[in-house]
């Protein structure tokens, strides 16, 4: 009977919500919120003479009269600001006039709150545009004077008294205690106006522009003083700040700053140095975050995966809709992009970015893999746990009244006559042209956190409002029912008030925390809360400025799923004093007080786990130098270049002194080098003259082995890099070791020219000497074409003959091979081969002593990928050999499957005598060319005549773009798998594929090292990767900083996170070496110095 009553009550609660979505859009006649941010273009002010005319305005949620209900303040660009008092039950009253708020003059942008005088009442700080055309403004501070007899808060504008009446191109502000002196300081984000005329070298960010440059103002006894230059804040005219967030991204107790800049300027991540200065790390070290969003808009700092580390999300304008994508301006071509980087800018791409915090002051960008990279023209990432399941979700505001990146409009307005008309900012023609810009009225997005670093688009089931031009917004529990509602500021449309109904149909619980801080920070701004329950931890920080141009209550809202008791709460105040509460009941609001805190959290509690590997200074005087890839000059429509593949490291005892030495390959026109180790663990470059002669070669791989049986290790070096079509730079080089000195054997391999990918020494015929296999991944300058694989037999005296044909055409022509493992798979004493490469499946060849036989029934037949590396071992300790293979990864726009493959069509599509490599992929169930229209027409000019507009091009199917007979006749290769994978041997040399965990998919995996890191008897793996030389429309594979996967002893692996080592850059190769009796890992880095990691005992 009790169960029946519970079930009946559940269905009754469901029936109370007759809506099909989690959120209900409330009509304004119910809420009485009738605010809308109306824009009216004039000749004096429109999108063509103020580039941020359509950027919208913000909203602030705060309890201004201390009645326990959140009130709402809306800013308007050309519309009067409005303040609405919350009356309860989701009804509001416009009290703008009663509250003495009077901000009717343009141009208002962002809004935030602060208790400026620490009287217990929240005040309002408003950002405005200063002098531009008819606009004359300065920032406003409405100080709360307390309540009148009707309980209405009254305000007085008093910015000048605090030094905050700033006249600049202000976007948004945030109050925070940057120097941990107990009071609140101010960061003001500004924006510039003229991106074309302002573009120049990145060094311009170091100059000071009073109107466009950002500012940090320190609170000195209640007056705010500009200390921007002293603390290290960029104040240049090339800053186009649109997004601003504060958070402790380094977990050291000091607040850091993230500024999202539009256009060409870098985003800024200011890391607090704990001495009243900041270090901007994106400009200093491009590997720390890798790439950022390009046209950065709103951003947020929050812990999105419950690992107690603050992550960063930044929004951009990458279209999700395929037709919109094809008609929009995209990224610079590769060559232009490289020039842009040389001018002092960091990597940026048009996409949303999600930087997961690795805990070692580095981040991994995963937006494509996480499922949130493309959300149209996006403004505000509003983070909150909207279903109270314990993980934060994401609401994204969208839309633009004038999409200035529409390529057909850009072509139209680029007309010389029109440009002359636009020369005068205040022209009627200017106004007329502004009205012809295409509009992009689209839906706002809702993403549910899947609790595995990915998100699901739940827009249709969570919200039902119409398409809009939405900008600022805030999450807030307006009705105090324990779930987060949403308030959104729209252009030319009434604001959205979205009621969250999860309290009506969910058993999930919540906890709200409000703060009673010290006398100089009454609302506890900057306090961190860590909630521990069921082995999990939820972390949140108390800052009011959130999202885009907006702010929230100085409270924290946490969801806990079905948990009824929270094990403990750690409250870490901005001063680092802390307190711990235990066994807290859920579904309530609690208040915590600073007076109950003590000690220093970061001295008392915070501890790090032991890292298996630790970084050590490089022991080599060597920096790899590789020229900019020219492959995209030849083939603009390919997804990746087959260049810049080095360096590789070979380790052996060259002089037989019992110490391991190493050889590292150089780039084109850079000599490879031999380093000899001494007893002190130092390395000296020797025999440089021996290798200087062949410096023009781009050496990509080397092996040291005993070629002639004299007990000294000889050296074989192969070259590639797709720089040369033929000739000596593609010939393997054999160096014979004469008592510790290498001498070039100029007769060997002189008839072989191959763009090599790897060389291996092995005894293929069991005759006691070392034979050679040389692999190749491409035919030079012929993208995707199949090269020859070689096997050379040793006569026992170091003379090698080509026996490739003897071992079979199946191996010789097996594909675009990148790696091979020679190992005995069937216990017949002969070394068999497992081969991986690009555009090919993983292949197994059994060696019978006379030939290599391709195995047909391995269950690997449809594993075609862009494989880079493979390692073989008995990972599950069941007596047979399994393998792990490193692939392209899953963190780009490209996806592949058996039903929706990536396809290479090679044919002379335009009859000009040159083969064109056209690559397609599937997006939203439709096969589409990978390349943009601009890229395709440079290679296939007939397309410009066939499709005059971008709109026509976007609407054409792939088969309508190219001649059907040419597509049918094309030489074709395909890719079905892009994920790095583990292959379990089923006991009969058939293999079952398992996709490796999330962090193994965030970038390419270029090499793998095996070791039992935790000494449990099972082999673990170290993965390294990244690839910078890919088409700019795909961004950059730069998220890997090295990853250890621990063997779970059940046949799979899990991520070993919180490891305190960093492998930055394009990591190509791993080798182990003993130095003074200790184990080191050396990782070679393209265009950089090798990384040394010491095994931590």
Outline the secondary-structure elements.
Blueprint: H1 2-16, E1 23-25, H2 28-31, E2 59-62, E3 71-74, E4 82-88, E5 91-94, E6 108-114, E7 123-128, E8 140-147, E9 153-157, H3 159-162, E10 170-176, E11 185-190, H4 195-198, E12 215-220, E13 223-226, H5 228-231, E14 241-247, E15 256-261, E16 268-272, E17 278-280, H6 281-284, E18 292-293, E19 299-302, E20 311-314, H7 322-327, H8 334-342, E21 348-349, E22 353-357, E23 363-365, H9 367-370, E24 378-384, E25 393-398, H10 407-413, H11 416-421, H12 428-434, E26 445-449, E27 455-457, H13 459-462, E28 470-476, E29 485-490, E30 496-500, H14 502-505, E31 510-516, E32 528-533, E33 536-541, E34 545-546, E35 550-551, E36 555-559, E37 565-572, E38 578-585, E39 588-593, H15 601-604, E40 613-616, H16 631-634, E41 649-652, E42 661-664, E43 673-677, E44 683-686, H17 688-692, E45 699-705, E46 714-719, E47 733-738, E48 741-745, E49 756-762, E50 771-776, E51 790-794, E52 800-802, H18 809-812, E53 816-823, E54 832-840, E55 843-847, E56 852-854, E57 865-866, E58 869-873, E59 882-886, E60 902-907, E61 916-923, E62 926-929, ...
Parallel strand pairs: 18-21, 31-39
Antiparallel strand pairs: 1-30, 2-3, 3-4, 4-5, 6-7, 7-8, 8-9, 10-11, 11-12, 12-13, 14-15, 15-16, 16-17, 19-20, 20-22, 22-23, 24-25, 25-26, 26-27, 28-29, 29-30, 31-36, 32-33, 32-37, 34-35, 37-38, 40-72, 41-42, 42-43, 43-44, 45-46, 46-47, 47-48, 49-50, 50-51, 51-52, 53-54, 54-55, 54-57, 55-56, ...
